[in-house]
Structures are given as C-alpha cells and as structure tokens.
Prior knowledge:
By secondary structure, the protein is mainly alpha-helical. It is built from 3 helices and 2 strands, in the order H-E-H-E-H. It has a two-stranded parallel sheet. Strand 1, helix 2 and strand 2 form a beta-alpha-beta unit. The model has no long low-confidence stretch (mean pLDDT 85).
Amino acid sequence: MHAIFLKTLTCIIFMTPPWKEIFCQDEERQHTYEDAVTEYERNLKFYSQCGYHIVELPKISVKERAEFILSILLKRPTD
C-alpha cells in the first residue's frame, strides 16, 4: 500500500477545463456546461486529494496542447 501511495505522488494528470466557447451538447454529451464545470471541479479536488500532480491544459489549439504536454513529459525525471 505504501508503494502505491508513493507512486501516486509522482503521477501527473493532465486536466482539460470546461471551455465555454467550444462547449456543445449532443447525443453523446447531454450534460450542461454548468454540469461540466461542477464535474471538473469535483475531479480536480479528488485527484489533488489523492496526491496527483495536476496540470491544467491551457485553452489553446490542439497542436499547441500536444506540444505543451510533450514539453512537460520531456522535463519529467524518469521514475
């Protein structure tokens, strides 16, 4: 159990915040923007309490997000 906890402390979670300008509802995504915000905040709190390192993705293009993620992963020391 202790080893699992220590491993959790080194894990990164990339989270994408709700983005009102591109948010849409459809058959797959039936919840409202407000529901998305509530769920995001709940998940953010939960993962933080579990010891994960949270990185919020900026509201930029898909290509720029991919580059952002790679820049963080390439800086990360090997476990």
